[in-house]
Amino acid sequence: MRAVVRELILFGVLFVVLSLAMHFSAWIDHPIHHLEALPSSPLGLWHPLYLTLAVYLLLGVVRLLVRFFRRLFSGAKRA
User: Fold this and answer.
1) Of 7, 13, 18, 32, which has the fewest CB atoms closer than 10 Å, so is most exposed?
2) pLDDT digits (tens, 9 = 90+) for 1-60
3) Is residue 8 within 8 Å of 53, Cβ to Cβ?
């Protein structure tokens, strides 16, 4: 259960960081108008979630590769 909560927190933080990085001036100048304009976005209403999921999955693959190589090289030292 703790792992699920940790991953949800990671996804939420990633969502906020990506949205601020992509639309910083809109969030600072007119955040309510920016949210109201979301349904008329050319990328679609759900594009923030799709893009965050894509980056999250990409980071997941990188995390798995790092874990794999750590175990591979730490196992080679023990033998």
Assistant:
1) 32
2) 999 999 999 999 999 999 999 999 998 999 999 999 999 999 999 999 999 999 999 999
3) no
What dihedral do alpha carbons 10, 60, 5, 74 form, nearest 10°? -110
Helix (H, G, I), strand (E, B) or coil at 59: helix
Report the distance separating Cα 51 and Cα 45, nearest Å.
12
Burial of 66 per CB tally in 10 Å (0-12, 13-18, 19+) = exposed
CA separation for the pair 65, 59 (Å, rounded): 10
Structure tokens at 66: 């790092």
pLDDT tens digits, 58-71: 999 999 999 999 99
- Which DSSP letter does residue 40 get? G
